[in-house]
Task: inverse folding
C-alpha cells in the first residue's frame, strides 16, 4: 500500500462460528455480505477459549501465559506490559486510537496505574444514548487528512446474562426466538429446552449483526471503507457445555472475516481452509500497514494465504501446529492443547481434580438439561487425543489406544516443547490466582460472579 490504512477491529462475546457465512440457519445478512466482499477464514481458532485471555492473546500477539492474562481481567489478572497491546503500538506509528464498549483486557481507564491500556478516544455511550451512536458519529466526522485510525469496538449481545434486559438470557422472556425449527449446535442433544436455548441465541446474533451493519454502512458513508482493514471475530466458542472454555474445536473455533482496502488481497469473497489463529492478526495488521512487526509476536501474517503465495486450501499451509490454553476462568482448570492437521492433543495438569469444572460452564437451561440426565459428572481423562478428520466432534478419545502411541507421543513432545519455549508457568506447578477470593469453588455447579468493579460494558462471566 502507498499509505497506512485504517484498522477497525470488531469483537463479540461467545459467538463461535454460529453465523450465516459458516452455513448456519441464522440471520446475519451483514456478516454474510462482508464475507462475500472480503475473506472468510473457515478454520480460525482462538488461543485461549475464555474471555480476557483470548482477547489479550489477540491484541498482544502473544500467548495468554506470556502476556500475563491467565484469567479474567475483572478477577485480578493483568497484562505484564500494556504497551505491547495493539493500540499503543499503532499509536506509535501515527494512528489515532479509539475504543468503545467491551475490551476486557484492562482495568477501568479512570484508574491510575501502569496496567491501563491507553486509547486516544473513548466512545462509550452515556445514559440514554444508543449503544454505538458515538462510534457512528465519530466515523462520520473523520476527514481524509486526519490520518489513519485504529477503532476497537466490543459487543456482548451473544454473552449470556441472567438479567431482564434484551439479551440472550433464557429468563422470563424466553424463548425470544422460535424454537420449533431450530437445529441445536453440536455436540448437544436435540432436546426441546436446548432448542429454545438456541432460538434465543439466534435472536441475540441477529441483534449483533444489526450493529455490525450500522458500522459497516458508516464506513461506506464516510468514504472510509476502501481504505480500511476491517476485522470481525469473536473471543471463543458459544456459551454451552463442551464449547466455551473447552479446548476442543467447539471451544477454540472462532468466526473470522477480514475485508481489506481495495488494493489489498483481503477482497473478493475468498474462503481460506488453512488453519489460522488469533495470534496471526497482529502481524497481519503490520503487514498490510507496511510496519515492521514487533519482535515479540508469535503469529504469522495472513497475507500469503490471500495473495496466492500459499495454498489456502491446504490445512497446514501456514501452521503445522496451533496451541491453546486455559488456566483460570470462573475457577481453576489448567489445561493445554496442540492441534495439527489431523489430530488434537489435550493435556490436563491438575491430578488432584478429575471432574468437569462446572463453574467454567456458563449457567443455562442447556447445562441444566445435561445435569438432570447425569451429564457433566464423569471423570475427565488427563490426556486426550482426537482424530479431527474421522471424529470432528472430538468424542472418541484415542489416547489409550496402542495403535496411536506414536501419534500420542509426538504430540506430547510438541506440547512440552512449546511450553518450555514460551516459559509456561504450569511447568513449575500449580498457578495461583492473584486474588483467591475472586475464584469460584470448582465443584459449584452454577457460579455467581463476585462483586468486582468491571470496565464499561463488560458482563460478568
Result:
Amino acid at each position: 500500500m502507498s499509505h497506512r490504512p485504517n484498522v477497525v477491529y470488531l469483537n463479540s462475546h461467545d459467538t463461535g462460528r454460529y453465523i450465516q457465512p459458516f452455513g448456519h440457519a441464522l440471520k446475519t445478512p451483514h456478516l454474510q455480505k462482508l464475507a462475500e466482499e472480503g475473506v472468510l477464514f473457515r478454520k480460525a481458532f482462538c488461543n485461549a477459549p475464555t474471555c480476557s485471555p483470548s482477547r489479550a492473546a489477540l491484541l498482544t500477539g502473544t500467548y495468554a501465559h506470556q502476556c500475563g492474562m491467565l484469567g479474567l481481567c475483572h478477577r485480578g489478572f493483568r497484562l505484564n506490559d500494556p504497551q505491547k497491546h495493539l493500540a499503543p503500538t499503532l499509536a506509535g506509528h501515527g494512528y489515532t486510537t479509539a475504543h468503545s464498549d467491551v475490551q476486557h483486557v484492562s482495568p477501568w481507564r479512570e484508574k491510575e496505574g501502569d496496567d491501563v491500556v491507553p486509547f486516544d478516544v473513548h466512545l462509550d455511550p452515556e445514559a440514554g444514548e444508543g449503544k454505538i451512536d458515538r462510534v457512528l458519529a465519530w466515523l462520520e466526522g473523520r476527514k481524509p487528512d486526519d490520518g489513519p485510525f485504529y477503532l476497537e469496538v466490543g459487543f456482548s449481545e451473544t454473552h449470556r446474562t441472567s438479567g431482564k434486559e434484551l439479551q440472550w438470557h433464557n429468563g422470563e422472556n424466553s424463548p425470544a426466538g422460535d424454537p420449533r425449527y431450530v437445529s441445536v449446535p453440536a455436540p448437544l442433544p436435540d432436546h426441546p429446552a436446548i432448542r429454545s436455548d438456541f432460538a434465543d441465541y439466534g435472536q441475540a446474533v441477529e441483534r449483533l449483526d444489526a450493529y455490525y451493519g450500522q458500522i459497516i454502512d458508516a464506513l461506506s458513508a464516510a468514504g472510509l471503507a476502501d481504505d480500511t482493514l476491517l476485522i470481525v471475530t469473536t473471543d471463543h466458542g458459544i456459551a454451552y457445555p463442551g464449547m466455551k472454555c473447552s479446548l476442543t474445536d467447539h471451544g477454540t473455533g472462532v468466526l473470522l472475516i477480514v475485508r481489506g482496502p481495495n488494493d489489498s488481497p483481503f477482497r473478493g469473497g475468498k474462503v481460506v481452509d488453512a488453519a489460522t489463529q488469533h495470534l496471526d492478526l497482529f502481524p497481519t495488521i503490520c503487514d498490510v500497514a507496511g510496519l515492521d512487526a514487533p519482535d515479540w509476536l508469535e503469529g504469522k501474517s495472513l497475507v500469503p494465504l490471500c495473495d496466492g503465495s500459499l495454498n489456502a486450501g491446504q490445512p497446514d499451509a501456514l501452521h503445522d501446529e496451533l496451541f491453546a490454553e486455559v488456566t483460570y476462568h470462573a475457577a481453576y482448570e489448567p489445561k493445554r492443547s496442540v492441534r495439527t492437521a489431523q489430530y488434537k492433543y489435550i493435556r490436563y495438569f491438575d491430578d488432584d481434580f478429575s471432574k468437569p469444572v462446572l463453574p467454567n460452564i456458563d449457567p443455562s437451561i442447556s447445562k441444566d438439561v445435561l445435569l438432570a440426565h447425569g451429564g457433566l459428572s464423569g471423570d475427565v481423562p488427563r490426556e486426550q487425543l482426537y482424530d479431527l478428520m474421522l471424529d470432528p466432534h472430538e468424542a472418541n478419545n484415542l489416547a489409550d489406544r496402542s495403535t496411536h502411541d506414536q501419534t500420542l507421543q509426538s504430540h506430547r513432545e510438541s506440547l512440552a516443547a512449546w511450553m518450555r519455549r514460551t516459559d509456561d508457568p504450569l511447568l513449575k506447578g500449580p498457578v495461583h490466582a492473584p486474588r483467591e477470593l475472586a475464584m469460584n469453588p470448582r465443584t459449584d455447579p452454577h457460579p455467581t460472579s463476585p462483586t468486582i468493579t468491571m470496565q464499561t460494558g463488560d458482563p460478568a462471566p
Q: What stands out?
A: Residues 449-461 have pLDDT under 50 and may be disordered.
